Amino acid sequence: ALRRKNRSRMEENVVRNRRHNVTENGNSKEVTSGRPDRPYHRQCESLFSSRSGFHNYRGLLNDCIILLILSNSKNVATNLYKYGIRINPLSWGMFLVGHGNPRVLISWGLFFLSFLYPLLALKLEQFTVKGHITSRALFMMQFIMLFFILTFPVGVTFVWESGPVESFLVLMWHTVLWLKMVSYAQVNMWCREDYLAGKKDKTCEKDDSLVHYPDNLYAKDVYYFCFAPTLCYELNFPRSPKIRKIFLIRRVLETVFLMNVVLAICQQWLMPTVLNSIQPFKEMAYTKIIERVLLLAIPNHLMWLISFYCIFHSMFNMSAEVLRFGDREFYKDWWNAYTISGFWSMWNIPVHRWAYRHFYNPLRSRGCNKPFAVFSVFALSAFFHEYLVSIPLRMLRMWAFVGMISQVSTNSSIKNVSQLEASLSQRLICTQKHCFYMCYTTVCFCCWQLPLGIV
To answer: Is the pTM of this model over 0.90?
Structure first.
């Protein structure tokens, strides 16, 4: 009896507090309690309707994550059942130290030889300040040095027939060094022009701890810049007060662990799929080609995301912590980008800053319009993408170049979409980017037949 009494009171409270709209002849009026049918309905929209004002879909997102985990677990189990355990960390270690392969030792020699270029750039700047060489002669010597940085490792790679991995790593380091030396030359040129004109930096005058030109022209400064996680040179970099040991240990452990995860995915998942794709590509069986490309979607996506975190967060922060480099903005929220240009400007901040400071701004200051300057930046990026892919794989197909240049037209299309639906433009950006890299990776590796030179 007590339970029925409490239930009756609860129903009365619900009916008393419920209000809903009833439309009569176009007019709306409120109806309160007192109806014998105890109404529970009111005028409202379904939650999935855009007019409902409901936006909390976190539970569905969790359900999608569970579904993603289950589907990937099934793929992992199928892979292990079909190929067994192919992960062999020792093979990567033996490969890096060059066990039984003298070509890897040549790559290490190129790496250590490259540290002569910063010293040469420093000496040229010192000779120019002292008046031993003219500015025009300095420009010619710097141009020859920069040309040599990009071409010399290419010649050595082709002569010694180095494998794709060691060739890629050597060319990647020389590309980074080339970008750094361009920045070093330009910044010192700007400072030298002000120094010879008698202009003084008011900021440096207020703070005696700041370095003035030409006091920055010494070996420690240029080599600090070579190892710092940035491509833009400055006379006075922001410095952190001390090295955080716990933070550094975490970044070291993350780097080691994630690098092994990427290599494990490549050995266990990516390479067997690519090796099985060689025959369909030779026979041009388009159905099988599409099936193989789709099979690469998951490992390719995982490797890209893990590599991004490993490089731009773990490795860059590890280097910055050791050098006490203060600026840790290596990336922004590229996952929220609405346009192609926004994505490229947020996912790799060091390259974006270099392109804007040393390439885009000089073009604009010389009277070039904005579309031409933007196209030139993408063209330079396309050149280096092709440089880092075609030479290690010994195949000049211009796929990477065309893929990067096409980003300019794709950017204008997605800009129009982003004005209508921001979330749709985000999905289009991620889809076109990952499809391009997935297809390009498959074609390149199948043409090489032995992906990465390691089985």
So the answer is: no
Would you call 204 helix, strand, or coil by DSSP? helix
Question: Residues 121-129: contacts with CB within 8 Å, 24+ apart?
Answer: 121/145, 121/181, 121/184, 121/185, 121/222, 122/217, 122/218, 122/219, 122/222, 125/188, 125/192, 125/214, 125/217, 126/214, 126/217, 128/192, 129/192, 129/195, 129/214, 129/217
Q: For this structure, is 132 an active site residue? A: no
Give residue 97's pLDDT band: very low, low, confident or very high (50, 70, 90).
Answer: low
Residues 183 and 45: their CA atoms lie apart, in Å, by 58
| Spatial separation of the C-alpha atoms in residues 13 and 5, rounded to whole Å | 13
Closest CA to 349 of 252, 229, 432, 234: 229
Residue 263 is encoded by which pair of tokens?
């290599």
Indicate the pLDDT class of residue 26, thresholds 50, 70 and 90.
very low
How many CB atoms lie under 10 A from the CB of residue 185? 20
Choose among 435, 443, 439: nearest CA to 393.
443
Q: Region of 327 please: left (phi>0), alpha (psi -120 to 50) or beta.
A: beta
Measure the CA–CA gap between 312 and 432, rounded to whole angstroms.
22
Query: Looking at the chain, how many residues does it have?
Result: 455
Q: Choosing from 212, 301, 313, 385, which is the catalytic residue?
A: 385
Query: What are the residues whose beta carbons fall under 8 Å from the beta carbon of 233, sequence distance 6 or more?
Result: 180, 183, 184, 186, 187, 188, 225
Among all chains, which residue has been given the structure tokens 């007192």?
A: 34
| Cβ density class 120-135: b for 16+ within 10 Å, e for less | ebbebbeebbeeebee
pLDDT digits (tens, 9 = 90+) for 299-332: 888 888 899 999 999 999 999 999 999 899 999 8
Residue 244 tokens, joined: 């955080």
Spatial separation of the C-alpha atoms in residues 31 and 389, rounded to whole Å: 72
